[in-house]
Amino acid sequence: MWNFAPYGERQGGKVRVIGLTGGIASGKSTVARLLEQLGAKVIDADQLARETVRPGQPAYEEIVREFGAAILAPDGTINRKALGGIVFADPAARRRLETITHPAIGRLAEEYLARYRASSEKVVFYMAPLLIEAGVTSRVEEIWVVYADPETQVQRVMARDSVSRDEALQRLAAQMPMHEKVRFGRVVIDNTGTLEELEMQVSEVWEREIAGRPETGNNEREVEK
């Protein structure tokens, strides 16, 4: 069962918190950047994850104890590619990593959300690739999903991360399939086209859902194409 925060209830009627998610290489960060250009505030769970694993942080120490010094870069920071190579190939290792990082990320996310709830902001996006899988949908009132078909995802991962097709497929397999994830999206943005097409979609959905929408709940599902 997936729990969502009722609109306006957790925020005292002030801030509408929208979860932004999608599959690996579906274009979440690009959509988030476009939303920021339109005036949105975005909390990036990946950035929070980087903050929680900096040297000196409790999560950093736990990760090094769990996975060994081989995952460290020469400067002592965690080599994300080395760690990813371990956890994407081993579901049990991935679960151990998530047990360490997710609580720390959650605490930071709540700190940021609390600041926005105390401010005059009306809408905040919480961008998290594992929003659904990690069971943290209670942080948001609704979900927007950025969609890309699996083959497009594979090609983007190979190009972006300089990995083989098998490694790219491993990374896709570590997340909920896109055809399942889109079921949770009240808004689904299709990012299988060009950047120009994506920009147009984001602009249109912003105008309809944010700029032109009264401050009331709306549970109708929209698919952007």
Summarize the structure.
With 225 residues, this protein is α/β, with parallel strands linked by helices. 47% of the residues lie in helices and 13% in strands.
Write a structural description.
The chain has a single domain (16-224), classed as Rossmann fold (3-Layer(aba) Sandwich), CATH 3.40.50.300. Helices cover 47% and strands 13% of the residues. Strand 5 (187-190), helix 9 (195-211) and strand 6 (222-224) form a beta-alpha-beta unit. It contains nine helices and six strands. 31% of the residues are buried. The protein has a six-stranded parallel beta sheet, sandwiched between helices. Helix 2 (45-52) packs across helix 5 and helix 3 packs antiparallel against helix 5 (91-117). By secondary structure, the chain is an alpha/beta fold. The radius of gyration is 18 Å and the shape is globular.
In the CATH hierarchy, what is the architecture at level 2? 3-Layer(aba) Sandwich
State the end-to-end CA separation.
28 Å
CATH class descriptor: Alpha Beta
Q: Find the structural class using helix and strand composition.
A: alpha/beta
Number of strands: 6
Largest sheet: 6 strands, parallel
Number of domains: 1
Spatial strand sequence of the major β-sheet: 2-3-1-4-5-6
List the helices and strands and how they pair.
Elements: E1 16-22, H1 28-37, E2 41-44, H2 45-52, H3 58-67, H4 80-87, H5 91-117, E3 123-127, E4 142-147, H6 150-161, H7 165-173, H8 178-181, E5 187-190, H9 195-211, E6 222-224
Parallel strand pairs: 1-3, 1-4, 2-3, 4-5, 5-6
Helix pairs in contact: 2-5, 3-5, 6-7
